[in-house]
């Protein structure tokens, strides 16, 4: 059975492994008595739960550590705080709904969809009010986008702070949204010629409001009611949220209740005293909406140490850009002295996460791991030094600088900076 049509299958498999890197040595052979393979395990002895034991599926109990986490000292109260996606534990580009990071300004609004309304008013021909049923009768679209908080990596502006990709870069997720294009809804009301901006308003206790140029509103914005095929989660804006592809997450107003059309921006709190970039001269950059090209290695990383010792190693990470697709990701093993081109695998969609891999044979020595992404508009992810040279150290938002992990001979990793 080992040979067929003149081909030695065992030799072919061995050759294939060698071509992709060092062949993996088996941890044990049967003669050495590995009990995990030689002994009958409990799960083969007894019947398991039936089909209705878990009417809404949950992860395995052995994956209970894969959860969102917060930093307790970051804010005074959890109602206006953030938790982080465990990006180090995930693969591919789609984030499971239960792991998408949360950012609230007044806690989660629990809204009965039967009582929820979306108002369109301002510089329109006909002010309108939509029920959820009304919205679901309009033509809908499915789009995959990343959502990143403008403060993602904000703690790292002045130096290495948080020890883990979940905490340094975990205010990002990527899902498939289902919803109605905002241009369709605005078209129902009719935009007056003087209408140049829209104001999106949320129904939570913070009454989140953001100004958006009309060009963006009628380009690719969605009014979404589903994510990854199911209804939005309450913490993600159920029953209705705005999707503003490629732009900072604060503009993706959750629990969306009103869209007003105006002729000028409203200059609300979240676009004046907050979500602006303080420069070295004391002035603040405003309306910096686009989330620039960015990447991070998620494994190995401080929360994902190398456990198997020297040998074949898969370096994995995420890259994204608010400008569109990622066309290239380079990885450095020596703190940016030399770069190797990584392999982007899976769908390459505009304004979505991209998964990259670099397969190496680790010799057990120290590594200074970095990744550098390039998008289809030609923007190259900068180093932290390059970013600070332009914007100083007083900022919080829009930190897309290159991240460094120091991987030690014992496989552990630490958040560091190199210069």
TrEMBL record:
GO BP term, pick one: sulfur compound metabolic process
Keywords, in A-Z order? Metal-binding, Molybdenum, Oxidoreductase
**Database matches in CDD domains:** bact_SoxC_Moco
- GO molecular-function term, one example from the UniProt record: heme binding
Cofactor list = Mo-molybdopterin
Domain Moybdenum cofactor oxidoreductase dimerisation, chain residue ranges per copy: 287-403
Q: Which SUPFAM superfamilies does the entry link to?
A: E set domains (SSF81296), Oxidoreductase molybdopterin-binding domain (SSF56524)
Task: Using the record's annotation, list all stretches that form the Oxidoreductase molybdopterin-binding domain.
Answer: 105-264
NCBIfam families under this entry? sulfite_DH_soxC (TIGR04555)
Q: What is this protein called?
A: Sulfur oxidation molybdopterin C protein
Q: List the source organism.
A: Lutibaculum baratangense AMV1
State the organism's lineage: Bacteria, Pseudomonadati, Pseudomonadota, Alphaproteobacteria, Hyphomicrobiales
